[in-house]
Amino acid sequence: xxxxxxxxxxxxxxxxxxxxxxxxxxxxxxxxxxxxxxxxxxxxxxxxxxxxxxxxxxxxxxxxxxxxxxxxxxxxxxxxxxxxxxxxxxxxxxxxxxxxxxxxxxxxxxxxxxxxxxxxxxxxxxxxxxxxxxxxxxxxxxxxxxxxxxxxxxxxxxxxxxxxxxxxxxxxxxxxxxxxxxxxxxxxxxxxxxxxxxxxxxxxxxxxxxxxxxxxxxxxxxxxxxxxxxxxxxxxxxxxxxxxxxxxxxxxxxxxxxxxxxxxxxxxxxxxx
Length: 273
Description:
Layout (H helix, E strand, L loop, with lengths): L1 H16 L13 H34 L2 H34 L4 E3 L5 E7 L4 H16 L3 E7 L5 H16 L1 H13 L5 H4 L5 H15 L4 H7 L3 H16 L7 E4 L2 E4 L4 H8 L1
Parallel strand pairs: 2-3
Antiparallel strand pairs: 1-3, 2-4, 4-5
Helix pairs in contact: 1-2, 5-6, 5-8, 5-10, 6-8
C-alpha cells in the first residue's frame, strides 16, 4: 500500500510538471515535443488510474460491499467443484465395479443406483450422515451403499475399518450389521483413551464384542483383519481418496457426483435423481 501511494504521488507530479522535462532553450514547440508531452501525460494518467484502483477497490470490497467477496469465493468454489466432478464422473463411469473392490455393500447389492461412502467410525459427521443413508436404503430398493472405510485417525479408526472389511469375507450382511453397530454405539470410552499405549488393543477388543453381537466368527475375523484382502482394500481406499482429493470424512459419490461433508437426507434424494 505504501508503494502504491508513492507511485500515485509521483504520477500526479509527472502529469502536472512533466512538460518541464521537455522544456528547451528555444521558444519553438515542435511536433515531437507535443507527442512526447502527450505520451508523458498518458503514462501519468495510466499510473494514477492504476493506483486509484489499487487503493479504492480493497476498501470497496471489504468496507462498502463485502458481499461481493463472498460471491467471488462461492463462484470459485462452485467452479472447482465442477472441475472435480468432471474427474469423478469420468473415473466412476469407467471404473465403478473396480471401485467396489472388497468393500461391504449395504442395501440392495444389485441396485441400479450406487452411493460410494468414504467414512471413518470415529468421525461424528460420518455418524450423522449414516443415519440419513440408512433411511434412504430403508425407503428405496434401487440404491446400494458401498462402504469405503477410510482409516485416518490411527488407533481410533484402524480396528473398526479392518473389522468391517474382513467381516465381508464371512458374510456381507454381517459386515453391514457390524457397520451399523459401530455407527450406532460407542466402541471406545474416555477410560480407554487414558492409556494411549493400550488404546489400540482395547478398541480392537471392543470391536470384537460388537462383531460377536453381529453374528461373526471373531477368531476368523481377527485372522482376516491381518490378511491381504483387508490390506488391498484399505490401499485402494487411500488411492481413490488421493485421486478424488478427499481430505476428510464423510465424502460421498452419488451416481457420478461428489459431495464432501455430511449432506442432509433431502440432498441425497435430490442427487439420486
